[in-house]
């Protein structure tokens, strides 16, 4: 299955969804403003989904995926996170807004759903994955048991691919970004700027970024120990990387990898040479365990998985075993 358009920095190449069957109203398996609440008809743990950039809470692809989940776990309660009730506005909110403010609203949204009050599993698609991780670290009430993230930018993105021709929303965001990804405007109004991590401007990033640098506890004098406690409370953190991902740059960000910063005076890379990657277990924040990732990993609770193919091309062979293993445990 291929989910709808997914971008990595409000300027990434959109993906085209597969043609999906029309869903009747009584088939919609989501709790969202666009659909009536579907009560849990079985004693399994509920599920929360957070869509990616260019998508919305009740798009055909999200509805289709939720239906597939219910084929695996009949009767499971599924809630699709939204920033705006209107689908077009919800899509725009994935490009423009303040992530920290959006997260506060989402925490209140989740807390207000009775079916989730005893905890839930969660799946985040691309940027929805790091946003769900931020929810766990900052709020986690109700608590997340298992968190699965597909192609998420846990160490940010470090490049700006071009927009597809005719993608007006992407073009507008890209032009705005040209004024400076680390400007005050970009850091409070452009969603993807708030997880843009330039390895050659790390000092600037650490000084101005208030989202990714925060949830990764990268600023030494601003470490929040609650983040580590909350993340370490997960039963499992399942990190799914797409083998041919050209949208998330570098793709290893899905596994907490990042480009190695260029040392002052270092020799430039040869044309075509790949920039070295700092893997998860060599990240300074992992070694210092600033936000609980090392604790989780040493417990055997960080699961590294690979989906073969491009960004957000999720085959049944990839998602289904993970959903069977980590979603819908008996209550």
Automatic annotation (TrEMBL):
Signal found in the keyword field: yes
Signal peptide, first to last residue: 1-19
Lineage top rank: taxon: Eukaryota
A Pfam family that the UniProt record links to this protein: Palm_thioest
GO MF term list: palmitoyl-(protein) hydrolase activity
Keywords: Disulfide bond, Glycoprotein, Hydrolase, Signal
EC number: 3.1.2.22
InterPro entries the record matches: AB_hydrolase_fold (IPR029058), Palm_thioest (IPR002472)
Family statement: Belongs to the palmitoyl-protein thioesterase family.
Descriptive protein name: Palmitoyl-protein thioesterase 1
Lineage: Eukaryota, Fungi, Dikarya, Basidiomycota, Agaricomycotina
